[in-house]
Amino acid sequence: MPINPGMLLQQLGQGSPRQSCSGQPTMPATLQQLLLPETPKTHRQGQTDLQGLLQTWPLIVIYADKWPHDEHEQRYNSPAGNKVADIIHGEQDRTSDIVLKSIHQSYDALQYPLLFPYGDDRYHFGIPLHTPGGQLTTSSKALLCKAFYSCEEIAGQSLSLLCKSGDGLSHAFVRLDLKQKDLSDISILQGYIHLRYVDISNNRVTDLESLNNLTHLLSLKADYNQLEKIALRPFPFLQHASFSFNKIMHTSGLQHPLLEHLNLNNNQIEDVKGLDGSLLTKLHTLEIKENKIESLEHLNIPSLRNLYIGYNAINSLNGISRMNALETLYLRKNNIADLTGLEETIIDLKYINLRENRIDSIAEIMKLQCLPSLKILSLTDNPVCNEDDFRTEVLVTLLGLDKLNKDEFADEEKIEALEIYRQRQAEKKKSVELENMDSVV
């Protein structure tokens, strides 16, 4: 938990400061006890008491923007001048709430643990500022301290689900819900390495690079943002990823070995060749509706069982047979007029939605006879639906169907279709026999 400035003021106010041998005030034991490895956080309370306290309390100046030559930029110099620094976050151009001025070298040690007790980077003057659209500014402006800690506070309030860490030696919050926080920069998440479930939907995020340190991720939702790419390093445990309603144009950067469900709906994808089945060996469900895809030629994911690729511009099913584990095929509102490409190797395909395409004859539907497990077929708003006895003819062609255009077949319909089928088969057999007799004569 962060140090509470109100509690700090209350305890520091109990008695006057002690004097050292040199006549300078020394640090009370109460403050030493409060300097635990915690991170200070902004609070506005106690300002009146603080002003009175500063009249009798030593001041320490911290040079956050200077460092020794050839040293790390965040190793601070010893105080050497009458400068002012904030340790309560806020606008950098206003009067400080807390001003500490060093008058003795023994107080130098306070600088580091007070601001960075764990030695982490956290806020520094070099964090670049982003525009509301998420792009880096071209000027030299940097992120204000107030904005940084506001984002950190939002993240802290959005954490939940306390679990053991990956090494099993400690506990950490593993779920983060940042939906609808109007965020454009999520770089602060680089330090949340224990997260497993992250939801940053409905923001203005343009880059996911800050998530690359989250190697324990199981689920990532980044819907309704401004992403143009999804280049991420392979996450060894990621199982569910959703990037719908973004501006993604290609599918490269998805190489997660345990990924099972991927949602890329409502983007600007034209080709799926970036999806490598040899790297996505566990992927069983792909949602990629409402994009600009014209062909399935480059889609080769043998493990795929459910493919939702409606509302695109597909005009051919060539290549679909490579995914012989398919059970669900959603092709609504494309430009399909020819069903060539579906083969008997797809033995488990049970559901096909071809609604709002350009299929115009029962002869095309006969190409589905090679699918032994097909039970549900949707052909609504295709020209073929206008043919006489459409429903009966489809059932005669595909006797195993249970449902057509959302309506189940009654037992009477199935019996009638079976009788018509047998009658046609008998007529066909008789016709073949007559042809054979004529050829012998």
From TrEMBL:
What is the protein's given name? Leucine-rich repeat-containing protein 23
A Pfam family: LRR_4
Q: Which PANTHER family match?
A: LEUCINE RICH REPEAT CONTAINING 23, LEUCINE-RICH REPEAT AND IQ DOMAIN-CONTAINING PROTEIN 1-RELATED
Q: Membrane-spanning residues where?
A: none
**Which UniProt keywords are present, listed alphabetically?**
Leucine-rich repeat, Repeat
